[in-house]
Amino acid sequence: MELFQTILDILVSAAFWTAVLRIATPYILGTLGELLCERAGVLNLGIEGIMTLGAMAGWMAVYQGADLWTGVLVAALCGGLMGLLHATLTVPLGLSQHVAGIGVTLLGTSLSYFVYRLVLPQASTPPTVEPFQPLDLPGALAQTPMTYMALILVGVVAYVLYRTPVGLAVRMVGENPAAAEAQGLSVTAVRVGAVVAGSALMALAGAFLTLSAFNAFFFNMVNGRGWICIALVVFASWRPGKALLGAVLFAAFDALQLRLQQVAGGVLPYQLFLMMPYLLSILALVLVARRASYPRALMIPYRKGER
Amino acid sequence: MTSPPIVLRLSGITKRFGPLVANDSISLTLYEGEVLALLGENGAGKTTLMNILFGHYVADEGSIEAFGQPLPPGSPRAALAAGIGMVHQHFTLADNLSVLDNVAVGTEPLWRPRSDRAAAKAKLLDLARRFGLEVRPDAPVGDLSVGERQRVEILKALYRDARVLILDEPTAVLTPQESASLFDTLRRLTADGLAVVFISHKMNEVFAASDTVAVLRGGRLVATRRTAATDREELAELMVGRALKPPTPAPLEPGEPVLTLSGVTVGSGHGRPLLDAVDLTVRRRQIVGIAGVSGNGQTALAELVSGLIHPESGTMALKGEAIGSAGPAEMVRRGVARIPEDRHAAGLVGAMAVWENLIAERYHDRAFQRFGLIRRGAARAYAEEVIAAFDVRCPGPDARTQLLSGGNMQKLILGRTLAHGPDLILASQPTRGLDVGAVSYVHGRLLEARAAGAGVLLISEDLDEILALADGITVAYHGRLTPVLPHGRVSVRQLGLLMAGHWEILPEIVDAA
């Protein structure tokens, strides 16, 4: 009963919701990016590495003297390049999307650490930059510009997917590439485009970590967030609005466990709380995603003229 | 009289798939306002030729001219731009998207900031009205019947202002009335100046709808005739290379019931039940044909008899024994042989060897396994036997199954199901997509099994097939079945009316019978 009261207290505090939106931001961006790739029929397991590279590249640009928004742009460009690599391997070459994705993750992660060490060989405490500051707004609205950008991008991706010809093309190549081809679309071009754009979004998720949530780049800072995004896409049934919901829900679990650790940390081992968001996500997946209608051509390479 | 302008000219088209020559230097000409039937057995190269025309494949040799302009090879976009539309045999529709989405995709400039859905919908509905192709623009394609999907495919081409329409096996899924209305549509299109090519291996379609017929055999164009100046016998011989005679079922006295359904209801959970209080009896030495447009409960009936789903109410009995919730393996053990509706999806594993597919229903038999290990030698020897007995044309038991033609795949399934003397044969669309030679082979085998004492439940959308084989016919409509009507007591017109739901005519048929 006491625990219940504690949870209630936490849930009504503005500080809690401020934290939720901050924690949710990389999940929102990463999930949107993954969703875009998968809607076009390409699973992108490179997300973890692309987020790491985005985190490093964005921070490095700012550290080298660029302003913050230029850093964000650099991160997106690097993400797009990694996306181009993944798309080249999986779309025109038709390689296994799982294997290529894991390769991209390994490459993105190691490349980030390599470049970081190359530029800063002897730094023991990570050097810092001046990050985005929260806007001067009341309560939970006091977020950094990147969080607002993420929220706007949810609407943009939803609009593009459901209201524009190019969005219809993306959905069509993810559902039935042969049908798209028969309608005169280039399956290769649409898929590559979607993967590049989606990967750029993933890199933005990484850049948020180093330019908004923290002010430095350190090893293992993405810490599995990419993999959570992949689960969130399924949870969201490949819909941007539900992706936002899923990301916020997961962030709420996370924020809640952080606070509960402080309250009940003496009684229960803190690892139990660390586990909570993941356990609850699995539960939510079981409840929500069983009926999900996934893009029919997801993970199936399309080879023109094959019989 | 001058001949109408030429819209398409194919010259010397050759296409090879590895060692197989699918098209061997084919030249064809299509005139404005003409319906050209491309007739030939499966594997004769009809679909390949049309896929080259539409840009799915690139020809190894030869060239295509559309409206006097050379058509760039390998580009559906160029084909569409030249006014060529294609309705594929395996529909190219995305199930999760709406009818309107499927029609409109790719028709607008890709970077337009907003789709003009209202205009697209108005244009679609206008076309639908003009050519009598009724559709619901906002329904997801996955919810449509096969017949409706075909209408969407035709509308897709018309929406793009096609001047040449290619139809691949268009009537396979339609009732006689629907086919007649499709042919009406085609006539309306040609009156409008379109040219139509339709691929077929059905003789009656050729005579019902075409002006000219081109016969392909083994990748070669063997003859082109004015339809009015030829006859069935000549075309059949050109197509097969030899004369064929239709099956002649000998009258047999039906034996005891092998399958009895009484009051079976399935899938009543959401909306209309898939099967609604169905009564049906199939006896030994009897073929009962289920006629009907697809999507009226045939699939549920087939799944019920294969043990994939179970009655929610009512009872099912095999050879007098009630069946509770026996699964597919149990049904096979009890003597049910099944020829699945979709041989690729539910019949065979394309990536596996022929012998593996042949023992797929009985790999646990002592004959084929010992101590949990497959006896490859025994399985292969058995496969050799079946291959010989059922005349499966394949390199051998180790060949990958997906390399076989449709007809040979079906022979493989026949071999697997009939080799063990089943009591009940469930044949779902046993000849869909097969050529004349393979069809007559399958029909012969089913009649042999009937003579040997099996009961056959024949589910087919091909009314000619049911009329050729069935001793009794029942019509499926909205999950219900009519009483079994004796063959010969019901006309094609009456069957068509029953298939369209006009069951008020039942009393007069039953009274007459």
From TrEMBL, chain A:
The chain crosses the membrane at residues 6-29, 41-62, 68-87, 99-120, 140-162, 192-211, 272-289. It holds the Pfam family BPD_transp_2. Keywords: Cell membrane, Membrane, Transmembrane, Transmembrane helix. InterPro entries: ABC_transp_permease. It is found in: Cell membrane. It is a multi-pass membrane protein. This is ABC transporter permease. It comes from Azospirillum isscasi.
TrEMBL record, chain B:
Transmembrane segments: none annotated. Residues 8-243, 259-503 form the ABC transporter domain. It comes from the Bacteria. One of its GO terms (molecular function) is ATP binding. Keywords: ATP-binding, Nucleotide-binding, Repeat, Sugar transport, Transport. It holds the Pfam family ABC_tran. This is ABC transporter ATP-binding protein. It comes from Azospirillum isscasi.
